[in-house]
Amino acid sequence: MKNSGTRQTPVEGINRRNFLKLLGGGIAVALTYSDLNALSKHTAFVPPGDDAIAAWVHILENGTVTVYTGKVEVGQNIRTSLSQVVAEELSVPVTSIEMIMGDTLLTPYDRGTYGSLTTPTMGPKLRKAAASLKEVLTDMAAKQWNVAQQTVTVKNGQVSHAASGKTASFGDLTKGKKMLLAVNDQVQLTPAEKWTVAGTPVAKVNAKSFVSGKHQYVSDMVMPGMVYGKMLRAPSYGASLVAADVEKAKISPGVNVVREDNFIGVTAPDPQTATNALARIEARWKTTPQPSRAEIFTYLKTHAQDKEKKAGEAVDKAFGAAPVQVQQHFEVQYIAHVPLEPRAALAVWENGKLTVWTGTQRPFGVQEELAEVFSIPKDNIRVMMPDTGSAYGGKHSGEAAVEAARLSRAVGRPVKVVWTREEEFKWAYFRPGGLIEVAAAASNEGLLASWEFHNYNSGGAGIEIPYEVPHKHIQYHPSDTPLKQGSYRGLAATANVFSIESVMDDLARQLKQDPFRFRLNNLKEERLKQVLQAAASKFGWTRQKEAGRGYGMACGFVKNAYVGTCAEVAYNKSNGQLQLLRLVVAFDCGAIVNPMHLENQVMGCVLQGLGGALFEAVDFKDGRILNPSLSSYRVPRFGDIPELDIVLVDRKDMPSAGAGEAPIVGVAPAIRNAIADVTGVKLNTLPLLPHGMTLKT
Known about the structure:
The chain is of the alpha+beta class. Helices cover about 30% and strands about 20% of the residues. The chain has 17 helices and 26 strands. Strands 9-10-7-16-13-14-15 form a seven-stranded mixed beta sheet, with helices on both faces. A five-stranded mixed beta sheet has the order 19-18-17-12-26, with helices on both faces. It starts with 15 loop residues before the first helix and ends in an 11-residue tail after the last strand.
């Protein structure tokens, strides 16, 4: 069942377990609404649990391999790399695999697509399921042909016995058979050095549907009788509705106004009519005082849940005794995710059951959210996530799904809700702002002596220092955030690694040591050393700098992946203009599943990192977002992109880790350190240059 259809609705008596048991021998078929109605009447087989091969991989009668995963595709191209690892273990071409992703009816439960976890967790799970299925197929063929199992081979979806000349397709073997055996956790997997499909630059499996416009995003979907929904929203954070006159909104017979407590929305036959109707609602709001951007860092520290600093005597003593000391505080602004596709959802109710299509990183989380809002069992809700236009950690929640479902239930028709860009800026959550205070010290020989690090509000990801230091205290202080905040690519590691690597550079320069050598002298982690060395080598760190040029570097370890970054900037002292000339990024995430798409992932991380490093910041005052548009919120443009070199370190001896987050963390500190190198100015705020590429001292 493909994600792009709109006829698939939950029906009486069918859920994932019923669906799987009806597959019997593991033969999956493409079902329409009427097929599901027919299947729901059968209860013959014991349903497999999620430990069964049939829960993850099915063989269709025509030999197509259908793979099920609760993970979703948000532009990271995980659909292709997961297809590759299945193809590798099952010995079939990638073109024979159809992957069903993010469908709460058909796929096993999954917490969500986040944290760079898909490759290291879902990859091995699907590999084991595919390898287990391959074992079962060879055993079936051996028994059918009365030959030894070890004499049966599998290649390109065919099972063969060379001595007798017998062959059979996967479809021939599985037809009418039950595939309810458990996945063999001890099954032998193909080592990375022997990969022939995984580890290669397979093109995006469904690229044609995107470039041709065939792919249906949620905002493209249309159902018979569907109407469009718009919601009345508060003018600012913390505002509450006092009164609302909705009569003037009923501008035509096709307009419906829905009011449930403080929820007010309208539906109409087209988006413009819905927008016009919404604009006619007269509402009065009560506002409450809210902190503004100008005072945010003082606010975050004074409103911290744990204000006490607990460094301890040893850390204080080591810092006081050290000859080289640095004390810095860093300010990190809230920033927006700015996904290509704003939030959208299409909801329809039928016989007390709810079906929702929405762009989310957590289909099962949205299902749970809907179940709580409407007080109905999860089994009565189906959430489907068609491949969606980016998320960056910003689509964990189901706001649009809840809104569409509320409107649909009220008007008795399918309702589509598509957030505007302004709504996305104002009412989606942000990457947290934060205040970071660091006190660090080193010996005259260039070895770290003490390290004290306090993060207020932005988070604990990447907070641990990767360098060797005998005395350290690291503490995260949650705070009372005035803005809605949540996950972001790299989480708080973008802020924490920025602070760590800035202080490391400041220590090195105070010692008059090469920042590269200083880092290596304080590192024991060999993989982090290697990516730093690879970046420095490609960059040409030791070559003579031209006049008016500065070099900077940074490294980090995030989500079991290692990154080293070098930057070069030019500075025109006469007018204060800065120019980012070059970035080199070396990256190690273990065995590489698809080098072409890994390079794209790293590139995407780096380009997004440019925005947070240089100019992205949410401006707000009295609870209002002041720059809720792409004309006022500055994201990277083509003209901002420097020369970029990416060095991929393929560690076939190590498990594959995720790649969607770690490369972002080195961008800001490397640029900051390059600016300090050429100008002597230490910029300790993110973004570094909010007013453009001019250094204001």
